[in-house]
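Example for tutorial group B:
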């Protein structure tokens, strides 16, 4: 670096993630006695950050130099930190500064090199607008190599202007020397730690010239700061390694409790290297017991404790843990006064077990903390318990997707003086306010923000130093004091960071523990935080929590049922179920405690949090089974979807509230009729709002079921004031809270309905919550769960006894939130609000009224319409909804449509029911298949509509219509036909003697032949092709009743005969496959198969056309110059004339719509039992129909669904039928696939490869097929196995099947369809496999629906 400095060259320090590159620049600045000005590069970096920023001072615009200009003028070092995070085409702004030391500035001046300035000055030129750069000015950029690390590659013109130097992480030898010589760590601790560190470093290096860096998975290694911290912990607490793996606090995935499915590829490789190191190295001195070295995050029950004695801003903490008795002095703490005493003792068995571990790490290493868990497991509660233990005040920052790196540290505002002159000012964010005042800042939602925005805080968290956009620099308090003592004038623009300042980050991974939800846990995050994984409380801890929360209000027997139910739900991957987090368990406890109910209350409360009313039928059945298996007598209680009956308003338990101050805010719904169904929901809401004291309620359901009307009517009855917000695609966090306006040069912030409701104790109704971006509505968590929220104008919403100053808004005790949202998933187009933050609400699913209530409602709306017609309409709509639930039609016809029909009939009776329904059904007239189903439904309920053809043409008016035909027989028209069948099978007791295998004679009359040895197609005989016999070459079914020989008789076949039979079967299979060509007869054969399922094929095609692959949704692109809307968060910048203050809709990073296909592999059972038992239950027929449905249904959707079909049989686990990317293009090719399935079932040897077939399919789907063309990246990977479920016959257990269906990499979802079985085996399999992942096709007609629903469930 000194050499490059002497040569006046700029430098680029390249290396792995971490702080080593930045620390090296700081060390060089210290060595050369030069200031270092820092620009932390992120996607939010703009030209103003690199040149000058405009400010207003008393209505006059001035320009403040930013770090690059200041460094250039003063001869300082300019650090461009983490260049890989810059958006494209922003850093070229500095190209001329790098090349010639020239830069045009916004104030119409220009930077020029000192030598050029000197020459111009000496030559007498006008230099008034020129500003010379200092000869000692240097630019040092830092970044990671891209690839293999994520980020943007360097623009060649930019790269060519730097001299590069690779900066590796500190090596193990140097690390050891530092620990032993400087930190005075015992060598017995330092050596194994450094050996492990060095081993992982070496494992991550690759010198293979054949390695493709784009495909290389980089290993995560220990941050260089973590090894010294781990060494200090082990030195201070010698017993620590006996109970936990302290290293898991620096690499989260070393915690044995962390779900393996959530590991990224780099984490998996590091974990594998770690396991190897454990075997080769002696790590007993530093690692505890356990598979990954001890969890350190479990929720056990032991006697660890600590005592905290505070003295001002420091504390002495005595730890009695793991056999140690250690006191740590001078631990920084908060200054909040303690009541009565300055001493507090914390017992691990009376609080969260991680609290003492967090205090240990903070006391010894003074590090910031990161709490990681699934949703609702108590991270915020634990963070606040930590703050309370050390007498801290807290600042909660709720992070969201669109928060910028600048918003994390400062906010810009516009002040006016008495003369109305405006001046721009900068206001600390809650994070910086906490840093300056010595509070704990809780960063909630680390998983939501972009990694580069978080990375801009790295210097603050690791070095307690950060440069703000307003030119101010925050540094460690000890450095500030040192500078101030040496030069009182040297602290201009410097602000000390309080020594007690701490940060606690909160990160959530999805409950399905997929690796995609842990992407935020990068190596940089590991550098910034000590990490703690919060596993779910075990049963013993849950009992203590319930006892503490509810006393004896919940009986031990009831609690046993709850905990048993939780254990059963944990066996699933979530599916469509809600989450049974700690938060929801406490909600269940509150409801049961308040109602003192028995099993019925338990079923109702568990069903509510588990989303029961929105579950598919098979998952609802699983839920009921789990309830029963938990010891709940579900037979004695009503269905979990049942709504209790209340028949009049007088039966509602309405509260007695004061008259409203603003009666105009009390809603007054028009034409609301108090039917029993709606009144029952109102009673539930009243119970939640006033008995259970719920502050936040979520109503979720289909469109048109009355969500708004129910709430408005309830608030009307209660005389409660309402504020209303309707969200939409363009809703922003700012619009949810405050709206800024520019009035006479002043920024005026107008309170949103949310703020008004908070202040005045009103009910806030948030409508269409599922239409807004999830990161926008996610900020509600801080208000609802934490009781606080920071607003854009600097004010803060607080709960309890706050409101000590004018900038605090106290949440009114009567404030409540009611959120309305549509159900998640197809066909609704919104986001999954329930899945995102639904667990912070008490949720209720609003359904369409049952038949009796709907008839009552329709009668009230149309009193002049005949009751018989209303009944017909109500029944028709009930049937339509049932078809929607079964997946037969896409649109969920609701009560709103039914009301619309009767209202039209009431107003215009002469048009009749035909004219009334035309207004609703014209939406569907372009879909003939759908119109036929609708026509049939109305006809079945006595409503005669015009014929379908007339309706499809839109030419309504012809009275009457054709009657519908009966349901088609799915068993007719198939390729395999059977005669002389009575549905039973017989036995063959005395088969003929064994001879060489042969085909046998062909009987043109096709008479039944039983127990012989001459005829092909006989049953129960010997030596010939047939069924049920022994010694024949292959199976041949001619449609007769099968007589089965005994297993003992089969065992008499010699090995020679078996070998000869096998040879004949192979020759027959080869001949059969070679002869597959298509003739007119074969086309007719194919149509005979496909005809009965043609409507299902059309429906599947229509459904798939509405399912889009996951893509990058258009979002607000901020900081643009040519946008069409001003960014509310940049209105101050706009007021003073900044350019990049607009926003527009677009794709991040300039990407277009990213359509990745969903990759699906279908695994068909082509074993002999499929052919053998087809005559018994049509299993092979169903299999062929499923294959035809797949090939025909996916036609035209190949760009979104890349499927393949393979089979498995006794010949092996994989028979290629349709390869990825090479789908059959016509009937001929599809018939070949179907005949291939039949041929393999007929000629394969006995045996089963179901397990191996599924396992191989998962690998192929995830990684591609060896020897085939490389597959493009997939949006989702899915394996669907179809089998006859005869597992026991081959010694396969359900556990083996379940294990085979789990992708160890967590990337492939597997489903199992049992198309037949002998006895109850398929039913048993379905009951024991993952809910929603097992299906039983008992009837041929069920298969198309199962396939269709399965595809839609994994595609939405």
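The residue assignment follows.
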């Amino acid at each position: 670096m000194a050499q490059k400095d002497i040569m006046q060259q700029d430098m680029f320090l390249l290396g792995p993630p971490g702080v080593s590159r930045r620390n090296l620049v700081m060390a060089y600045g210290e060595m050369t006695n030069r200031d270092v000005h820092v620009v932390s590069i992120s996607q939010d970096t703009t030209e103003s950050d690199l040149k000058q920023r405009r400010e207003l001072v008393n209505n006059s615009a001035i320009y403040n130099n930013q770090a690059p200009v200041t460094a250039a003028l003063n001869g300082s070092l300019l650090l461009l930190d983490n260049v890989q995070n810059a958006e494209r085409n922003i850093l070229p702004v500095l190209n001329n500064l790098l090349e010639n030391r020239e830069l045009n500035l916004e104030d119409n001046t220009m930077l020029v090199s000192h030598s050029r300035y000197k020459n111009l000055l000496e030559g007498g030129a006008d230099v008034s607008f020129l500003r010379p750069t200092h000869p000692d000015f240097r630019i040092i950029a830092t970044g990671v190599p891209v690839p293999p690390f994520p980020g943007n590659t360097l623009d060649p013109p930019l790269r060519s202007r730097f001299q590069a130097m690779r900066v590796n992480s500190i090596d193990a030898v140097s690390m050891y020397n530092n620990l032993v010589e400087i930190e005075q760590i015992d060598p017995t601790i330092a050596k194994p730690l450094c050996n492990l560190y060095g081993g992982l470093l070496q494992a991550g290096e690759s010198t293979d010239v054949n390695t493709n860096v784009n495909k290389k998975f980089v290993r995560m290694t220990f941050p260089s700061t973590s090894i010294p911290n781990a060494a200090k912990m082990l030195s201070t607490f010698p017993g620590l390694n006996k109970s936990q793996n302290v290293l898991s606090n620096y690499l989260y995935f070393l915690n044995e409790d962390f779900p393996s499915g959530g590991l990224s590829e780099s984490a998996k490789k590091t974990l594998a290297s770690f396991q190897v190191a454990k075997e080769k190295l002696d790590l007993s001195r530093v690692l505890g017991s356990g598979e990954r070295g001890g969890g350190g995050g479990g929720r056990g029950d032991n006697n660890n404790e600590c005592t905290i004695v505070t003295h001002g801003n420091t504390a002495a903490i005595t730890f009695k843990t793991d056999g140690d008795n250690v006191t740590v002095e001078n631990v920084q703490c908060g200054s909040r006064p303690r009541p009565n005493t300055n001493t507090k003792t914390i017992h691990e068995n009376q609080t969260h077990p991680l609290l003492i571990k967090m205090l240990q790490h903070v006391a010894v290493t003074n590090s910031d903390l990161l709490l990681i868990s699934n949703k609702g497991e108590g991270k915020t509660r634990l963070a606040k318990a930590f703050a309370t233990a050390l007498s801290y005040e807290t600042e909660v920052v709720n992070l969201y997707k669109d928060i910028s790196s600048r918003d994390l540290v400062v906010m810009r505002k516009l002040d006016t003086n008495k003369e109305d002159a405006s001046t721009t000012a900068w206001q600390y964010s809650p994070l910086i306010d906490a840093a300056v005042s010595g509070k704990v800042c809780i960063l909630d939602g680390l998983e939501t923000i972009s990694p580069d925005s978080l990375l801009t805080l790295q210097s603050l968290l690791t070095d307690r130093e950060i440069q703000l956009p307003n030119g101010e620099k925050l540094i460690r308090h000890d450095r500030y004091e040192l500078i101030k003592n040496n030069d009182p004038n040297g602290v201009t623009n410097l602000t000390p960071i309080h020594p007690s300042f701490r940060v606690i980050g909160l990160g959530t991974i999805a409950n399905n523990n997929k690796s995609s939800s842990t992407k935020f846990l990068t190596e940089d995050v590991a550098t910034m935080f000590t990490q703690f994984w919060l596993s779910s409380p075990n049963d013993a801890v849950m009992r203590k929590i319930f006892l503490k929360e509810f006393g004896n209000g919940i009986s031990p027997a009831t609690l046993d049922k709850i905990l048993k139910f939780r254990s059963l739900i944990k066996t699933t991957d979530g599916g469509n179920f809600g989450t049974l987090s700690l938060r929801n368990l406490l909600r269940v406890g509150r409801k049961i405690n308040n109602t003192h109910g028995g099993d019925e209350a338990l079923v109702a409360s568990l069903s509510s949090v588990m989303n029961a009313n929105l579950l598919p039928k098979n998952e609802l059945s699983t839920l009921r089974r789990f309830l029963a298996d938990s010891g709940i007598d579900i037979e004695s209680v009503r269905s979990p979807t049942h709504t209790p009956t209340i028949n009049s308003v007088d039966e509602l338990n309405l509260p007695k509230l004061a008259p409203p101050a603003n009666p105009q805010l009390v809603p007054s719904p028009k034409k609301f009729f108090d039917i029993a169904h709606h009144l029952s929901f109102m009673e539930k809401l009243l119970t939640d709002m006033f008995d259970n004291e719920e502050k936040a309620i979520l109503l979720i359901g289909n469109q048109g079921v009355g969500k708004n009307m129910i709430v408005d009517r309830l608030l009307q009855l209660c005389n409660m004031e309402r504020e209303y917000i309707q969200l939409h695609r363009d809703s922003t966090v700012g619009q949810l809270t405050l709206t800024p306006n520019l009035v006479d040069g002043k920024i005026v912030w107008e309170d949103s309905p949310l703020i008004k409701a908070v202040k005045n104790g009103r009910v806030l109704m948030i409508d269409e919550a599922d239409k807004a971006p999830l990161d926008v509505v996610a900020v509600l968590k801080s208000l609802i769960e934490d009781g606080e929220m920071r607003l854009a104008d600097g004010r803060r919403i607080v709960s309890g006894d706050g409101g000590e100053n004018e900038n605090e808004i106290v949440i009114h005790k009567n404030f409540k939130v009611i959120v309305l949202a549509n159900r998640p998933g197809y066909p609704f187009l919104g986001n999954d609000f329930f899945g995102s933050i639904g667990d912070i609400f008490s949720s209720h699913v609003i359904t369409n009224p049952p038949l009796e209530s709907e008839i009552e409602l329709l009668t009230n709306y149309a009193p002049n319409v005949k009751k018989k017609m209303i009944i017909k309409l109500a029944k028709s709509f009930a049937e339509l909804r049932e078809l929607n639930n079964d997946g037969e039609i896409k649109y969920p016809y609701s009560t709103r449509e039914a009301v619309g029909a009767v209202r039209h009939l009431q107003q215009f009776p002469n048009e009749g029911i035909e004219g009334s329904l035309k207004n609703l059904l014209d939406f569907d007239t372009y879909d003939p298949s759908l119109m036929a189903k609708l026509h049939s439904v109305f006809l079945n309920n006595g409503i005669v509509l015009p014929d379908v053809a007339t309706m499809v043409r839109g030419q309504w008016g012809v009275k009457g219509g054709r009657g519908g035909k009966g349901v088609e027989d799915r068993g007719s028209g198939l390729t395999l036909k059977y005669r002389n069948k009575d549905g039973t099978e017989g036995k063959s007791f005395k088969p003929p003697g064994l001879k060489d295998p042969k085909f046998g004679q062909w009987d043109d009359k096709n008479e039944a032949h039983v127990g012989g040895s001459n005829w092909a197609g006989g049953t129960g005989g010997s030596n010939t092709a047939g069924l049920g016999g022994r010694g024949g070459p292959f199976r041949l079914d001619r449609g007769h009743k099968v007589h089965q020989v005994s297993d003992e008789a089969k065992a008499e076949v010699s090995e020679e005969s078996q070998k000869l039979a096998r040879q004949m079967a192979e020759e027959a299979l080869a001949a059969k496959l070679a002869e597959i060509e298509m003739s007119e007869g074969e086309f007719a054969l194919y149509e005979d198969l496909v005809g009965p399922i043609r409507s299902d094929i059309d429906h599947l095609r229509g459904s798939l056309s509405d399912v889009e692959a996951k893509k990058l949704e258009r979002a607000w692109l901020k900081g643009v110059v040519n946008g069409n809307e001003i960014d509310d968060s940049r209105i101050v910048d706009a007021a003073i004339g900044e350019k990049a203050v607009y926003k527009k809709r677009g794709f991040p990073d300039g990407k277009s719509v990213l359509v990745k296909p969903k990759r699906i592999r279908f695994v068909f059972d082509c074993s002999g039992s499929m052919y053998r038992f087809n005559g018994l239950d049509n299993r092979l027929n169903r299999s062929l129909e499923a294959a035809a449905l797949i090939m025909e249904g996916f036609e035209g959707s190949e760009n979104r669904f890349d499927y393949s079909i393979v089979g498995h049989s006794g010949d092996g686990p994989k028979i290629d039928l349709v390869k990825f990317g090479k789908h059959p293009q016509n009937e001929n090719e599809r018939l070949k696939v179907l005949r291939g399935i039949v041929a393999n079932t007929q000629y394969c040897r006995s045996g089963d490869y179901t397990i191996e077939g599924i396992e191989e399919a998962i690998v192929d789907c995830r990684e591609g097929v060896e020897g085939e063309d490389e597959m493009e990246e997939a949006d989702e990977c899915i394996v669907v196995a179809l089998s006859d479920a005869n597992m026991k016959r081959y010694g396969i257990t359900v556990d083996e099947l379940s294990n085979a269906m789990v992708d160890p990499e967590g990337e492939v979802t597997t489903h199992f369809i049992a198309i037949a079985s002998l006895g109850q085996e398929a039913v048993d399999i379905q009951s024991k496999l993952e809910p929603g992942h097992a299906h039983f096709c008992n009837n041929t007609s069920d298969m198309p629906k199962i396939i269709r629903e399965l595809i839609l469930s994994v595609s939405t």
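The chain has a mean pLDDT of 83. Compare this with the pattern of hydrophobic and polar residues in the output above.
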